């Protein structure tokens, strides 16, 4: 416990979110669930966007019992299928009066090669393209809810590799770590470019590294890696600790001037050189729009 407390930045806040609506993807497990729990405790209406409705119901009941906040809604969202994303966004735009905070949290890590329903490499498709499309479809509602925030859960893994725009679907070759790193680099670049697009709208955008967290994201790894994670868990974060930087970016007052920034341990952090490349961010933006068949100036 002592080692973990040294590694994890201590932060706390009494900030309330009464009357605010928060939408969190992947809110039924891991740091997404703990983020939902914290923001529900602050009085927010929390929309839990989840692929597995049964697990989502279990998570909602747990959070409601723990926080006393019954204003939690579950909505079906499969980020690996653009039809599901569009159907979800249509419901949110129709039923919700506001979305003050969008937290793009859901993700998969270093899985075997596979493709989404639309033919995208799975890690890129879920971690980046799915959230890119979701944000695009909800953006008008978010703007009307300003002041508002968009929080993108990235990773220090964005430093592992560059962006392979000529083989972004990893069809020529596939490396699980590089593909994951590319999807996380795309997260940081997306947040950076989106922040520039949203200047003077009252909507701020942040990306972050949650830390090395004890979660089921490791489920696709070789057994040796999973054993190592358990052995060195004293140096890793619990899901509660891993959620803190997400919560910080969602609620900490005065962060608007740092829109587009990258955070770690509840503080601004340095991203890789590639992640700070505005030209690369613009190219990724254009490629993403083309892949998704959307126009987003």
What is the C-alpha radius of gyration, as a whole number of Å? Answer: 18 Å
Per DSSP E runs of 2 or more residues, the count of β-strands stands at 8
Strand line-up of the largest beta sheet: 3-2-1-4-5-6-7-8
Order of helices and strands: HEHEHEHEHEHEHHHEEH
Our count of helices gives: 10
Task: Tell me, rounded to a whole number, the average pLDDT.
Answer: 91
Shape: globular
Instruction: Profile the largest sheet.
Output: 8 strands, mixed
Measured distance between first and last alpha carbons? 48 Å
**In terms of structural class, how would the helical and strand content be classed?**
alpha/beta
Flag low-confidence runs: 1-8, 217-222, 224-232
| Percent in helix | 40-55%
How much of the sequence lies in strands comes to 5-15%
